[in-house]
Amino acid sequence: MGGGERESAKRAAEAEEYHCHDFEWKDLRAEVEANPAFSYHLSPFPTSQQAPSSDAWTSFHRRHASGKFFKERRYLLKEFPELLNIKDCVKVLEVGCGNGSTVVPILRSSPSMTVYACDCSKETLEKANEIVCNTKGFDVKDKFYPFLLDVSKETFPDWLFCKSCQSSHARDVNPLLGSSNCSMIKEHLVFLRDNQCCVGGIDIITMIFTLSAIPFDIMPATIERCVSVLKPGGLVLFRDYGLYDMTMLRFLPHQRVGFREYMRSDGTFSYFFTLDTVRELFCASGLLELELEYCCVISVNRKNGKKMQRVWVHGKFQKPTS
Question: 15 to each of 26, 82, 299, how far by Cα in Å?
Fold first, then answer.
């Protein structure tokens, strides 16, 4: 077995060690809802606040810019085997890439992939590019393209789903010779080559702890924007905070800003999902449900030995081929 094969086997083994059903979500729900101390989490809430600005998330990543905060999300290779050892050239869009902790395992596991990654903070994108490009074990040249975009407010640029090429061909204009598309590329994309006029659609979209960072009433439009750049038959791989996750129960009453919506002291936002909510959001955008479940993990604090019950929602959705 060669060095590359040994490394691949090692990563696969590490992924297999990840557990996602350490306890039953229904048992946790019964425990929480029977505890009077948590009653304020269950009461109705009349309104929802606006999304935090990109400055809040920029400040968040600036405070946690050290190497200790960065943790490669290798469990994704187990939870989403579609990302592992893909042979054909596949285009992935990471929505809300943050510091690149999702991008790194994707590129490491499948060198043939090309990853386009957006975030609302330019500084965060620069940090992600630094981390990804300095990670050993793979070559990111022509494989990683971060670009600035707030998906909760802005539509994706035309070059991402080939509308620009269709328009250019209709006008008989070469997009490589001064069309508005190329200027848009230079404006929005940090590291895309000048001679690439479009992407032509996305095969896989990853939304990993991204959707929960915006208010609930903006989520449907956000998902529709993502679906618009997805190829027929393409996949959305989703992972985010689930209802009654440990972090939700730690929020204080004054931090509630909506039903299942909370604002941290640093101004960043967090929503906690049920399966039904995720199903309704993604199916309303025309996607088909392939997988949807709670991931219930017991995490142990190494310093004090305290066990923490984490709840995440895992989902896979597909865009119909017709």
Answer: 26, 13, 16
